[in-house]
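Hi L.,

As promised, VOC domain-containing protein:
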Amino acid sequence: MATDGIEAVFLETHNWGRAAQFFQSLGYELEFDTGHNSGQLRNTEGPYVFIAEIPADREPTTRLVLKVPDAEAFRPGPGVELVTPFEQTHYGTLEATVRDADGRVWSLQAPLKG
């Protein structure tokens, strides 16, 4: 089974408020604020942006998350190395990671069944 486009962009930041304001200035609307320096924004029906504040001594990262409609049906094809299998997240989805031929790690996200 193939992926179904980009699900989300996960961003780490040193300042949740400034990062959220930046995306709101670009037309994104705040869907929810977790109450602990992170939250989700969306612009139309496209991928959402999830922003999480991290400590100043860590380098912020960005991850693209690809959508998988059914985790049980997903089978990595040639050139795709499964790094971590699908596991339930604390935020109510299933997530796995794969590596491409150049060594980049990609996140895959699927809905929970049931």
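The chain has a mean pLDDT of 94.

Thanks again for sending the construct details.

K.
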